[in-house]
Amino acid sequence: MNLLTLVLLVPLAGFLAALAIPRSAPQASRNFGMAVALATFLASLGLLIWFDRGVAGEQFTVDLPWISTPEIHFHVAVDGISLWLIILSTFLTPICMLISWNAIKDRVKEFFAFLLLLEFGLVGVFMAQDLFLFYVFWEVALVPMYFLIGIWGHDRRIYAAVKFFLYTMAGSVLMLTAIIYLYIKAQTFSYPVLLDMLSTGRLTFTSQEEILLFLAFFIAFAIKVPLFPLHTWLPDAHVEAPTAGSIMLASVMLKMGTYGILHFCLPLFPGAARQCASWIAVLAIIGILYGALVAMVQPDMKKLVAYSSVSHLGFVVLGIFSFTQMGLDGAVYQMLNHGISTGALFLLVGLLYERRHSLAIADYGGVATVAPWLATAFLITTLASIGLPMLNNFVGEFLVLQGTALANFTWAIWAAVGVIFAACYMLWLYQRVFYGETGEEVRRHVPDLRLREWAAIVPLLVMMVWMGVYSQSFLPPVSKATARVLDQTRINVPFRVGIQKGRAVVLEAHNGR
Amino acid sequence: MAASLVSSTDLIRFLPVIILTVMGTALMVLDPVLHKRASYAFGHLSIAALLAGIGGAIYAFGDPGPAFGGMLVVDGFATFFQILVMAVGILAILPSYSFLARQEAETSEYHALLLFSIAGQCLMASANDLIVVFIGLEISSIASYVLAGYLRDDKRANESALKYFLLGSFATAFFLYGVAIVYGATGTLNLTAVHDAIVGQDQPLVIFLGLAAALMFVGLGFKVSAAPFQIWAPDVYQGAPTPVSAFLSAGPKAAAFAVFLRIFLTAFGPIGAAWEPLVWLAALLSMTVGNFAALLQTNVKRLLGYSSIAHAGYVLVALAARSEIGTAAVMFYLAGYAFMNVGAFAVVSHLSGKGEKHQNVEDLAGLGKTQPFTAAMFTIYLLSLIGVPLTAGFFGKFYIFKAALESHLVWLTVLGLLNSAVGAYYYLRILVTMYMHEPGEGASSVQPLAPSMRLALILPAAGTLVLGIFPSWLLEFASRSAALVK
Question: Where are the domains of chain B?
Fold first, then answer.
């Protein structure tokens, strides 16, 4: 037991205890859920304080035997990447609870309990060091989200929930096959041991084996990201989910995919990853442009934000497959940025929906005159989302583009076009919703931010500015961890890639180890 | 033969079957005394008999070995399956209390037949001789046929029983033909001796043995409801009284798989390469037919019937692996499956109401609101049937596909896992109806949970979760026992 297991177990214990609260006391469920979420957040801040930033490897390791045949361990730890993703999850859960405080009236107890179970699954995914345990958390996180969408969502919620579940399930069974295959080959599920075996040459793959294993993992992750053309579940799930569900889905769950690619696909199958890199990069660029173009023509606000996620996540994947230090740093930073700014966008859209009961952009206009503070918060978030300097996304996008440019300049050009598109659709959205004539309905139904809503949005705005102005608070541990990932991708690759005159070239060819 | 035809050791190794048979007969004798006055006592006595039977099986396991001149054998494998079928019996009796009271059909025959059927299955589990297998199969089946038609005024139950009987008899006949041919080809019916005879032959009579294996495969394939011999399963499960469906889908199936493993791995082990493609194909067919047909079902019992075909397919995948790990995986899976499936049927039994009118998926609408406890238990069973981690169903599938991959059945594994993703859809549909639809007018009225029914819902759920979180102990026992079946 250490602080890390505490961060994992508090939400689980909270979930079980929340089930015992009688249905007749919804306020007790709310208070209890909030208390547990805040306690988890505080514990995760403890991780941040005691995390040794000078070390690249895993910290807070707990390794206990769980199942003896086959040998499966409860093995958790964090590195500089997963640390931030865990804090992102624990940071957003209380915000989601705040925003659902009055919005959720039906089955309050279950709602708050499922949010805690979701937090447990998500936090678990980011800390698992045993492939089997990782898979367990991966699936556990799926169940509460399915219920969140299916029970508390909008009109087409059932279709969206089932589609979401089946897409993810189809991907994850492939991953399970690959995990079992790896076990049979290496006789271990332990991720550090696998990496060690790879680096010492005790575990080798034929190139066909490696490609297939890589794809089995990658497709599961790519569905989650979602990478074009596997994204079709996302607009449905996002639009139909309740606000809290959309926030957790966009901000944290999508990161399960990119984290998986970065943390498992690259180090385990470096050869295959590099071989497929250009194909994947092209898909990522298509995703960036396609997501942006589709977002531009959406009449529905939530769908617009959902498609913008496809576009933003394309940047993350592109950064990862640039195989450069900057690209990887930018990708991780973008994961966090997207979590903050898109989370905030979904939150604000949710607030508008609560007031006007419509998601159609055409039903709004002139909101800025009746709700100036809401408009200001939305403006800051919009600007952050399109990558204005001094706000968070700028840093991430810049790093990704720079890293990509080092690897392949053409890719960077195409991706940069996506940034321009983002400005178009976001600013146009802002203009149509907040400026112009104030309609009668809007005047009557759209009050400004309330205290509880302030409390939910201000932390997000603060983070946007902080992450934009002083990225040094966040990036050093990330760089240490990504440098290690990058190093691992050079193992067993018969050539070493480097940068000369701004282009990636093969520096030296050597014959394995 | 010497004077001491039967030794005390033989009797001890035969103990579970003795206990169940004696108690079953005693129940029928007690009928006039207890009937009307205390009909619930039949249930209590049967549960006591089954507990005693489990105790007997454990006691007999203290001194394992052959009995009756090698016709029976008590080993870890036999004991495992005996305890399993008796536990299934207990789990099936628990929902029977409320069910029989509601149908006003409490008699001693019901329980006696159940005990006889289980006695047959215990015999199958420890059989080491094809004739004993056949006798066990018949005892188990004939009692099951009657049980399926237990509600004799119900048209569906009659249809169910008749179908089960006719097709079942055909299947047993096939099996018996197989037995006869084995005897012709090897001159013995003892499984170990058949194995030795096949190994001993310079040029095994592959044609004869292959034919025998194929015939037995048909017979046993029917009993485990593997495609293409699955036609009966949905009709029987739908028509039979729900607690009986629960029992049929787990008990006889587990015993039949036990026999399957012993015959094919012990006796026909040497010609494994010949029958493996057969099992491979049946596994794939069962998974595909079961899952895709279940997608279209509206009746929950029928849906569970098709799903049980799919699950038989998963178990056959492990059989196709032809390894010790595969056998252990089969054992683990059947134990987990017994819990989740009997639990699911118990839920249906609780909800279906008098005359079993409410069996459709729509009848479950809003159950999450009206009966949160029952819905929560059903959710655990359904998640386990889907194969979500931390449930028995997940580890069962995991071990099966691990065994298959270790035997290089890569394609079967991939197809099987994709199949389980398809399967998720129809289980999800039930979850959707329970939690995401509003309670409808025709929905079953809220019934108070009798203590026995509460237990019938909780025990399997506890089993499902325990096996899902701490699977090692059972798997280790299964692995040790699996080594004996070769």
Answer: 8-482
